[in-house]
Specification:
Order of helices and strands of chain C: EHEEEEEEEEEE
Helix content of chain C: under 10%
Number of helices of chain A: 15
Strand content of chain C: over 45%
Shape of chain A: globular
Chains: A alpha/beta, B mainly beta, C mainly beta
Largest sheet of chain A: 9 strands, mixed
Oligomer: heterotrimer
Number of helices of chain C: 1
Largest interface: A-B, 45 and 46 residues
Number of strands of chain C: 11
Strand order of the largest sheet of chain C: 9-8-7-10-11
Radius of gyration of chain A: 19 Å
Structural class of chain C: mainly beta
Order of helices and strands of chain A: EHEHHEHEHHHHEEEHEHHEHHHHEE
Distance between the termini of chain C: 62 Å
Distance between the termini of chain A: 13 Å
CATH topology of the largest domain in chain A: Peroxisomal Thiolase, Chain A, domain 1
Helix content of chain A: 25-40%
Strand content of chain A: 15-25%
Radius of gyration of chain C: 19 Å
Number of domains of chain A: 2
Largest sheet of chain C: 5 strands, antiparallel
Structural class of chain A: alpha/beta
Chain lengths: ~375, ~160, ~140
């Protein structure tokens, strides 16, 4: 039987377009130092470190090697994950497994990316199969664009409704001292007028590229209770993948097969039957505005086709019934190797009551999701109550 | 640490050549495309899905695939876009020319869809559900480039 | 069995950041200085310098300049024409070793070489190649 695990501390860098003042090692050290300080632990107290990062954006074979002394790797057990956009949540889920197994007591998950050193859309295009997809594909922007037209057709969602998600994200980000894009005055009209990248995705509909790092510390039950006044207990985790080609699940936003599968499994394990009512806050991996609305539907926050209406009604605003991405989400901050782990960190901060100006009052149950690869999904549910 | 140290950047071009094996199923597909200008998929004996690109296993049923089926040359647009943002093409290290239109196209008879170019860059002319037809090159070499693009049909 | 293969390139440009410590090291090379850092806790002297000791997990603030000379710890000869020689060099005062080219020496002489010194290029730009090679101290 697996034992109870909680998140007891987090640490993040201030995410930004470029950190030319630091190399990868120095960037990672900042986040790790903050997490250790948050936990009041030293590197000696960490039993294992798990890394998440995507090499093609850094341009060499082992970015974790180049950062190793910064994340405490010297003589320590460690494993590195690269699963695309899901890498942050995959690393978190692995940290949970490491501790739940009983083999390690305190495990740190670290996600990082120094995206300014490479070319993101170029590197992402190599995700496309070289023989079947690569010459047509246009990075993540192109992929989300072709998915968004299908979603708009099936759901009736409009560019204006999607723009509302983009506005919510950048306004929420102003309450988050770590967020990259903070735009207090952004309006729906600003989004609609922004440069068209690939129809219907406009510049302000899309996430940025960021340099950043995050560290999250997981501990077994007795240590968690000793070290943290209000730990965020891991209630459920789930992972699901897709078939191999982009066209195998052509309606990848309208019907997010892996998100539906993983979220239903996680809800069942957590005893949740009405996510909209029973979740207090959600940090979801929304690469673009249209994706956020599609995720509302596929996560069961509303019926199919109602994603636009949900945001129109203000349900997912910070003051709404189910705040989604009070941190500003991926649309405000996206250092890919870190991004999904930032969702976990932010969800944990909500449970721990340490989310500052973006705190959702009385948050007891939080959802964090990761998205990446070819529409892969990770889901994590955290709770104030022990499972 | 000395804060006056200037920030140094070091440039590096990752420039590697790969040799990707097409595989037995890909060979069959591209041979038919090159020699007979037609698209071949494979059908799963359990769920009935017809796969393009063809492959040895149905990932959903985990059954081996052996039944070849002709699909297309017409199909339907499932999703589309017109790429306007310039980006560096990883296949060349240079900018890929924009704008260009591309779509997720379900060929008639296939269960899965393909990415391919459209010969249209006016967003107002393209919509989900539109019918398209493959336009083949005269001289084909056995690759998806043997299809120049998909032409929008009808209204 | 078909052995059909498609040849294709992946070409992506990158621009790496040196970071604080490495930036000072590289700019130092342009002035023919070899900068190192020393961890106050374990006493290890790092060159190229690190701003952080991974063994002690603490920041390093002590800098020192090392002579451009040291012990040849090991070497290898690449069978190119002419042969390229790479050496592992421990500069005097350093705990870590540098990899660099060796010059002004024939492969067959290498087993007798104990000490080497840096030979600087005329045109230096702030790169490890500002040292053209290390030559035997004779």
């Amino acid at each position: 039987m697996s034992r109870r695990v909680a998140i007891i501390a987090t640490g993040q860098t201030k995410h930004t377009a470029r950190r030319p003042d630091v190399n990868i090692r120095e960037l990672v050290t900042e986040a790790v130092a903050r997490a250790l300080q948050d936990a009041d632990l030293t590197m000696r107290d960490i039993d294992a470190v798990l890394l998440g990062n995507m090499e093609p954006f850094e341009g060499f074979l082992f970015p974790e090697l180049w950062a190793i002394e910064g994340w405490g790797g010297y003589m320590k057990p460690s494993v590195k994950f690269n699963t695309g956009g899901t890498v942050g949540t995959t690393t978190a889920i692995a940290a949970y497994y490491y501790v739940a197994s009983g083999i390690y007591d305190v495990v740190m998950a670290v996600g990082f990316q120094k995206q300014s050193e490479g070319h993101t859309q170029t590197a992402i295009t190599t995700v496309g199969d070289p023989i079947w997809e690569r010459s047509v594909m246009a990075g993540a922007i192109g992929n989300f664009a072709v998915m968004a037209t299908t979603y708009m057709h099936e759901s009736g969602v409009t560019e204006e409704q999607a723009a509302k998600a983009a506005v919510k994200a950048r306004r929420n980000a102003c309450l988050n001292e770590y967020a990259h894009l903070q735009m207090p005055d952004i309006t729906v009209e600003d989004v609609l007028k922004s440069e068209m990248l690939a129809y219907p995705v406009k510049r302000l509909d899309m996430c940025p590229q960021s340099d950043g790092a995050v560290a999250v510390i997981f501990a077994e039950e007795s240590k968690a209770q000793k070290l943290c006044p209000r730990p965020a207990w891991v209630k459920a985790v789930a992972t699901a993948h897709e078939q191999q080609y982009m066209g195998d699940s052509p309606k990848r936003l309208a019907e997010m097969r892996s998100l539906i599968a993983a979220s239903r499994r996680a809800y069942q394990a957590a005893g949740i039957t009405n996510p909209r009512r029973e979740l207090d806050v959600a940090e979801i991996y929304e690469v673009a505005s249209f994706a956020e609305l599609a995720m509302y539907e596929n996560l069961g926050f509303c019926e199919r086709g109602q994603g636009g209406k949900l945001i129109d009604a203000g349900v997912t605003e910070l003051t709404g019934e189910l705040p989604v991405n009070p941190s500003g989400g991926v649309m405000s901050t996206n250092p890919i190797g870190a991004t999904a782990l930032i969702r976990v960190a932010e969800a944990a901060l909500q449970i721990m009551g340490k989310a500052g100006r973006r705190q959702v009052e009385g948050a007891r149950t939080a959802l964090a999701t990761g998205y990446g690869g070819n529409a892969w999904t990770d889901v994590i549910i955290l709770s104030r109550e022990k499972p | 640490m000395s804060e006056e140290s200037p920030t140094l950047r070091v440039d590096f071009l990752l420039d590697t050549e790969y040799q990707y094996a097409v595989g037995q199923y890909g060979t069959q597909f591209f041979t038919e495309l090159r020699d007979r200008a037609r698209f071949m998929g494979v059908r799963c004996p359990e769920c009935g899905r017809v796969y393009i690109p063809p492959r040895p296993v149905c990932g959903i049923c985990y059954r081996e695939l052996h039944e070849w089926v002709e699909v297309g040359p017409e199909g339907t647009i499932v999703g589309w876009t017109v790429v306007r943002i310039p980006f560096i093409d990883p296949m060349t290290g240079e900018q890929r020319p924009v704008p260009y239109g591309f779509a997720i196209i379900r060929l008639d008879g296939a269960s899965t869809s393909l990415y391919h170019f459209l010969d249209e860059t006016d967003e107002r002319q393209i919509r989900v559900g539109q019918r398209v037809r493959a336009v083949f090159r005269e001289k084909r070499e056995g690759s998806l480039r043997d299809v120049l693009y998909f032409r929008l049909l009808g209204e | 069995m078909s052995e059909w293969v498609v040849r294709q390139k992946i070409r992506i440009p990158f621009r790496y950041t040196a970071g604080r410590a490495m930036a000072r090291f590289l700019t130092g090379l342009a002035e023919r200085h070899l900068w190192a850092t020393r961890c106050e806790s374990c006493g290890r002297v790092y060159v190229p310098p690190l701003g952080f000791c991974g063994r002690c997990w603490r920041e390093i603030t002590e800098w020192r300049e090392l002579p451009a000379e040291g012990e040849l710890v090991s070497y290898t000869v690449r069978p190119t024409e002419p042969p390229q020689i790479l050496g592992l060099i421990r500069l005097d005062g350093a705990d870590t070793q540098l990899v660099h080219r060796l010059g002004e020496v024939e492969p067959k002489e290498l087993e007798h070489v104990r000490r080497v010194r840096a030979v600087w290029r005329e045109d230096r730009t702030g790169s490890i190649l500002d040292i053209a090679y290390f030559a035997p101290v004779r």
